[in-house]
Amino acid sequence: MEKEIWGFIDSGDQSPSFNMALDEALLDWHSAGKIPPVIRFYGWNPATLSIGYFQKVEKEINMEAVKEHGLGFVRRPTGGRGVLHDQELTYSVIVSEEHPEMPKTVTEAYRVISEGILKGFHQLGLEAYFAVPKTAEERESLKNPRSAVCFDAPSWYELVVEGRKVAGSAQTRQKGVILQHGSILLDLDEDKLFSLFNYSNDRVKERMKKAFKSKAVAMNDISPRKISLDEAKVAFKKGFEDGLNIELKPFELSEEQMEYVLQLAKDRYESDEWNYKR
């Protein structure tokens, strides 16, 4: 049986505004039937703190530290909490809600899409698996996360290795299209990450940081050998093909499409009104 062909984009390291604008543009074009479903890999230049759509900057984010570290800053169109995009492979998946393989519920669709990431870890020889929150307390903490840090909280169908979270994802549904994007950590600077958020006091910060170490981990902290970004890209591309039973073919943006993305980046994702609005 022939596999369905999806588009594949590796856009390399881009600005925070371009990255979010391209994800949004792909959602728009897929909604209009102009492009097939797409899987995209990307990186960030400069390294960037992205925050969830509903987060409050003044309350949660230490903008002085963001500037001191020379980081980019952008609000995502998806929910979730703050993510430091630094030493990672970032992915996005754009597919119609009506796709025959996509379940109707967010959590089940998340599981189906994340199957591609799971298979990617297996390609790299890492024993990743899905963990589901079992206790009432864990399920409740999904609704009321204690921390502004993405990797600090459990979510449904968490991707874990050796009991610790290795990938963090967020999803939105707009115009009949699912956009899921997320971070696959290669390495992580915890000190830098924890300097970017506001805490009621230093004791709380240290407690969160300590708890975080038991909950989240970067690939190269558990892999017996150093995994490069290029190697990760090959593994996760194959992982998505196997996990979603698809074939990925390179997708090139036209000049007109590129202009649209650049304009959207400037108008929305570089504007203070968007990034600081809540």
UniProtKB/TrEMBL annotation:
Gene Ontology biological process terms from the UniProt entry: lipoate biosynthetic process; protein lipoylation
Record flagged with keyword Acyltransferase: yes
Transmembrane segments: none
Function: Catalyzes the transfer of endogenously produced octanoic acid from octanoyl-acyl-carrier-protein onto the lipoyl domain of GcvH, an intermediate carrier during protein lipoylation.
Keywords, alphabetical: Acyltransferase, Ligase, Transferase
Catalytic function, reaction form: octanoyl-[ACP] + L-lysyl-[protein] = N(6)-octanoyl-L-lysyl-[protein] + holo-[ACP] + H(+)
Active site: residue positions: 150
Gene Ontology terms, MF aspect: ligase activity; lipoyl(octanoyl) transferase activity
UniProt-listed Pfam families: LplA-B_cat (PF21948)
Name this protein carries in UniProt: Octanoyltransferase LipM
Span of domain BPL/LPL catalytic: 33-248
CDD domains found in the cross-reference section: LplA
Entry's EC annotation: 2.3.1.181
Superkingdom of origin organism: Bacteria
Miscellaneous field: In the reaction, the free carboxyl group of octanoic acid is attached via an amide linkage to the epsilon-amino group of a specific lysine residue of lipoyl domains of lipoate-dependent enzymes. The reaction proceeds via an octanoyl-thioester enzyme intermediate.
InterPro entries: aa-tRNA-synth_II/BPL/LPL (IPR045864), BPL_LPL_catalytic (IPR004143), LipM (IPR024898), Octanoyltrans_LipM/LipL (IPR050664)
